[in-house]
Amino acid sequence: VDGRSLRLDSLRGRIVVLEFYAPRNEIFLREAGLRNRLYRPLSERLPFTALAISMDPDSLITEAFLEGRDIPGVHIIAPGGLDGPLAELYNVNLLPTRFLIGPDGRIVRKFVGSAMEPLQAEIAALLNLAAGNDAGGPRR
């Protein structure tokens, strides 16, 4: 939103939720509380980044939506909305659509629609796997 550019590969080593949304989307608005309760603690204690990409082609709507709201994450406005290059690149047709990306930069899973609870479970599983791998020694 502030005009800076960001490359996804600059976030390697972090767990990333790449989130495509529309500010007026009913599902996104309904899940806002759960989203904030999940993302904020992760952002504070782990290498975690939420990238929230507004697919509303009217940047004024997105800026007005974000103003005065404490929404964790990096906020981006996608040029062209659902008809633009980001939507095509990630095959985003419905909103919200979220991608969980592991520290290795690979997509772990795609979530479409109302999916905050499955996303939360998948993040927990990813964290448990990372903790097991960091324990050292062979796994049995």
Uncertain parts: 134-140
What profile does the largest beta sheet have? 5 strands, mixed
Question: Class, according to the CATH hierarchy?
Answer: Alpha Beta
Structural class: alpha/beta
* Beta-strand share of residues: 15-25%
Number of strands: 5
Radius of gyration: 15 Å
At CATH level 3, the topology is Glutaredoxin
Average pLDDT, rounded to a whole number, is 87
Q: Helix content range of the residues, please?
A: 25-40%
Q: Which sequence of SSEs, written as H and E, runs from N to C?
A: EHHEHEHEEH
Q: Which of globular, elongated, flat, extended, rod-shaped describes the shape?
A: globular
Return the domain count.
Answer: 1
Number of helices: 5
Q: From the coordinates shown, what is the CATH architecture?
A: 3-Layer(aba) Sandwich
Going across the biggest sheet, name each strand in turn.
Answer: 3-2-1-4-5
Distance between the termini: 47 Å
List keywords for this structure.
about 140 residues; alpha/beta; Glutaredoxin; 5-stranded mixed β-sheet; globular; disordered C terminus
Task: Walk me through the structure.
By secondary structure, the chain is an alpha/beta fold. The chain has one domain (12-134): Glutaredoxin (3-Layer(aba) Sandwich). The protein has five helices and five strands, in the order βααβαβαββα. A five-stranded mixed beta sheet has the order 3-2-1-4-5, with helices on one face. Strand 4 and strand 5 form a beta hairpin. The relative contact order is 0.20.
Secondary-structure blueprint of this entry?
Blueprint: E1 15-21, H1 26-30, H2 32-45, E2 48-54, H3 59-66, E3 74-77, H4 85-89, E4 97-101, E5 107-112, H5 116-134
